[in-house]
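Entry:
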Amino acid sequence: MVQGLHFPRYLRLLIQVSVGIVAFFVFVLFFHIDVAKVGSLIASLNPLLIILVLVVDVLNIVCYGTAWYFLVYTVFPTARLMKCVEGVMISIFGDILIPTGSVTGEALRLNFANKDFGLPYPEGIATVIAHRVLNGLASGTILAVGLSVLIFGGQLSASLRVYIFLLFVFVMVPTFFGLAVLVRPGIGSRLVVRVLGRFANRPRTAKMVQRITGGVADFERSVKLIRAHGRNLPYSFVFLIFQWFFQVLIPYFFLIGVSQTLGLPINYWTYFWFVSVAFPIFGLVNLVPLGVPGNLGIIDSAMATTFILLGFRADVAIATTLLTRIVLVVFELGICGAVVAHVGYRSIRQRKGTLPAGPELPGSGSGTTGLDSGAGV
């Protein structure tokens, strides 16, 4: 019997990235874009503008982590802001490398929070879901305001208005479902109990069902705790609005810079709202687990297409897209990877400091052992 081909992990990763890049180049060729011209356009951009965008991206990450901190603090008051920002950066790193629609990133975030500062998993899941729901509401708010400004300003065609309205509905439907779970957590609990109830009395599945239902009960309790201390929810929402604002500024600044380099007329007000309407599209595409790390090539094509549909020249759209993706993938992979390395090194040092030492060697002159220094482990 012929067995299926087995590719090493690094080779599969290389193939996936190559497929995404080839797809983007096919997209570029379809629009007959001069790649060399786009490259020279990117190279001629003002370095100060690039530094400004990198600072804006750091603020974007910090705001996202701060928004989560207010939710974690509700159920775990000993949490620290920097730890929550670290958890979010670990999550971003995982999402870029392993394309599973943010599942990997959230799992890494929860595991870090549990191991590093003791956040229980049910409470952690509740904060992550609340974080996601509030982020969806912030995204929908930015999209609705941008859509309103452009429609009343007469900047959108009739067909484009319909497409963006459908996008708005697509963004808000899962958000409202998540909001319903937060407002009435018993809905999700009853649904899980009803689905798993038929397996509760079977010997092979009884323990598993018991653990799941117990976890669901803990989650419901955590959600109620977040609601009971709802004064922190507005703070979290405000920081998510700031986070979206900083995210919009990244392609907005690049769009302005590229247009200035080409000597094109610029409408600063309209450009901002164009980007604020377009950016949720990229967020939605990024949540789809397409199997390509960082969704390279896929989200780039979606971003460039959106800019072209909004009326920008194809070379401007592609240059802005590539610059934005360099920041959101390469730069974020670098700084978040540095945080992952730092956290890993810190964890190794902490484990070494708590492991019991071996037998004392003759003549060592030490009257202590590793057990003394590892008290409380």
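Residues 44-346 form one domain.
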